[in-house]
Amino acid sequence: MKHTYTAVAKLLHWGMAVLIVGLLALGFVMTDMPLSPEKLQYYSWHKWAGVTVFALVWLRLAWRIVNPPPHYPDTMSRSVQLMAHLGHFALYGLMIVIPLSGWLLSSAKGVQTVWFGVLPLPDLLEKDKELGHLLHEVHEALNFVLLFLLAGHVAASLKHHLIDKDDILKRMLPACHTPKDNA
Amino acid sequence: MKHLITLALGAVLALNASAVEYKTIAADKSKVTFQYKQMGVAMDGHFKKFNVQLNFDPAKPAAAQAQIDIDLASVDAGSSDADDEVVGKAWFNAKAFPKATFVAKQIKPAGANQFEVTGTLTIKGKSQDIKFPLKLATQGNAAVFTGGFVMRRADFAIGEGIWAKFDVVANDIQVNFQLTANPGK
User: Fold this and answer.
1) For B19-171, where are the E strands, in sequence order?
2) B54 closest CA partner among B157, B144, B130
């Protein structure tokens, strides 16, 4: 029985964590900027990173199915375990839905998404100003939900580490082998 | 008598054939569009208002006259942000230079229903001679002229200052037009 995540799962977790935090920051900064070459650049980078998250989340889900994550410790009650599962389910859902809403909103705004300026993604919608505006609102609202869940995710991991003093945080850390793995 | 009628008919037909002179533009069946690349993304735009003065007999292209004046403030560059930006000083400076103008200097035949147009394009106080192929197709009474050319925005100081580099907005702008003209007297 494994008690830690695989190296690939850790890499995907932390890599996507960096991407997602960057995407959130960039998203809030770029939308408030006056039009400039930098603004257009930031939009493109935001889209490129968003498409990357969208691609990686499928890889991550596939990896997770083939390499199931370690179980929760028995010290966690059934209801807390359920909450943790629901929270992670919602995070995965948002990692799919948020980039998708961004892709759709780009299509509706009439600006095709071209991954790294090289690979054009098909426009899923016709250009439609009203719809573009609506999708922008949806994209933004979903990100506030994500922020809320991420805060909960981080708070929960710290609570496990600092208060419960269990392995929940440690087993996701890059160089961690829990004592049980070696046992 | 029969011969006379035939002769008269022939004369009328001959007259018609040589006297199809396209003069008036059907605005609803005409368009001026442009394509540019922004961060590697192909963007479309068009101008809603333009005026064409035309005097074109396909049989006598050398005598043809053509001028198109584009109302730069009528630009649709893809989004309202872009529209506001592109009429500003750094781009068209449409307040000081409200129109882009093309005046044909020479129209030469270049095959069946094809011509080669040379003329002067003036935008933002800067002029440059350009050359492009023109195609003619007839639709009933009307003629549809299509053509296009690539211009470099830097040649006309379109996009100055922070926009002068081409890493975000490319230098090459593809301009295309389709003008539907009706015969006039």
Assistant:
1) 22-25, 31-38, 41-47, 50-55, 65-71, 75-76, 99-109, 114-123, 126-139, 142-152
2) B144
Could you give the C-alpha distances from B59 to B45, B53, B54, B92, B107, in angstroms and in order?
34, 18, 15, 37, 11
Q: What is the pLDDT of residue B15?
A: 47
Q: Which class does domain A7-182 fall in?
A: mainly alpha
- Contact list in B for residue A111 (CB cut-off 8 A) is 38, 41, 43, 78-79
Task: Give the residue extent of every domain in chain A.
Answer: 7-182
List the single residue in B39, B79, B165 with the smallest CB-CB distance to A117. Answer: B39
Please tell me which of the candidates A37, A43, A114 has its beta carbon nearest to residue B40. A114
Nearest-CA residue of chain A relative to B79?
A: A109
Superfamily for domain range B21-183? Lipid/polyisoprenoid-binding, YceI-like (2.40.128.110)
- pLDDT of B10 over the 60 cut: no
Q: Residue for token digits 């071209």?
A: A114
pLDDT tens, A67-125? 999 999 999 999 999 999 999 999 999 999 999 999 999 999 999 999 999 999 999 99
Could you tell me the pTM of the whole model? 0.84
Residue numbers in A near B42 (CB within 8 A): 112
Residue bearing the bigger pLDDT, B108 or B13? B108
Q: A44, B163: Cβ pair inside 8 Å?
A: no
A37 vs chain B: nearest CA distance in angstroms?
6
Rounded to an integer, what distance in angstroms lies between the CA atom of residue B131 and that of residue B119?
7
